[in-house]
Amino acid sequence: MLGTFLKKQILLRVRNRQEIIVLLIMPFVLISILGFALGNLLNRGEIDLNAKLAVVHHGDEEEDLAKIKKETAEWQMPAEQQRAMEEALRAMAPLSLLKKEVFPPLESEGLLKVEYISGDEAEKRKKDFAAILEIPEHFTYDLLHYFLFEEGEKPKLSLTVREGNEISSQMIEDILLQVEKQYAIFRAIGKTGGEGAPLQLTDAPMEGSFETVSKSEPIDAFTYYTAGMGVMFALYIASNMASYALREKRSNVFHRIMLADVKRGAYLFGIFASGAMLAFIQIMILFGLSFFVYKVKWPDLASFFLVSAFLSLAVGSISVLLTSVNYKLNSENASNLFSSIIVSIFAFLGGSYFPVSQISETLQNLGSYTPNGAAFSGYLKILQGYGISEISPSLLALGIFTAIIFCIGIFLFPGRRNEA
Fold this sequence. Notes:
There is one protein chain. The chain is mainly alpha-helical. The protein folds into two domains: 2-11 and 218-418; 41-196, no CATH class. It is built from 17 helices and six strands. Helix 9 (221-234) packs antiparallel against helix 14 and helix 10 (236-250) packs antiparallel against helix 12. The chain crosses the membrane at residues 20-42, 222-246, 267-292, 304-325, 337-356, 395-413. It comes from Caldibacillus debilis.
């Protein structure tokens, strides 16, 4: 039964190319944007730019998304594929991508301060900003339409740079340039149906590093963000697993499994094993490709595989917990909350965006108890050349987390009388 369950989960993911884009391509998007933007300017974390950027949006992104979704709905895809398409479109919406994924880590680092203002206010306060980014009306629709249908001209943003802020302006230009390159890759993937897409994101030199607290070699920006984005995006597997499980319940697949005399514990263990396996596969693919794209090398492969396995088990336990809560509430609220808010909080505390120790030692200690934070700490120690004894605290934290969350998930899973 377990083998069949695992095979089904793999096939579901392979057939869902939009999900592959979000879970595999998006980490590379963020690694490239953060790595190049910070790598070209950071000098061992000692530069404090605090560049001020004004963003003027002349349209309504939600209206643009609704319009493009209406057009894709005419393709008459299966409901699940249509839902995945809508999720992928929302993930690629440019304004949301900038506001939720690109700008926050730079603002948290103190490198960038972003204000969203009107066109009139921008004209009055133009001397207050290093640059003003104007997003034309219907830009989101035009960009996604150009990406999906290959019709018309590629829409353009307007960036006005103020003289006298060359370094700050250059950083902002680098960020937008990297975003533009990632959309070019998305378009190439769309042309090939997700297969045979180029992996080399850019040929610019990799510079910049984070200062470490030991005498070991410093970790460059790309290595740091490869590990940081890897542990963060592994968590999204859990919410996806829980959402799929609830859809199985609503389509009576779960009830047919129960009629086949499969115990609830066995079903939840299948969720646990599937979540862990898919997370491990995602981690291996991401870090494997990072070796070729960013030249990220692991000095101790055995320790790397060990940390990856423990992180994957933690993701499996979260999958069980979210599945149980979804079943109990008969909604996807738990998995949606986890993917939209909790993952971002975990990523912040765990240091995926920047070394949180620069802000507070308390936050750093809190982050070490999150699954991504514990795994991230272990990865960084491996990359710095430490051995198995130094990463054992991370493994212990991941093991305890997995056991506790798995037990809570088993306890919360509703019995037959409580099924809706």
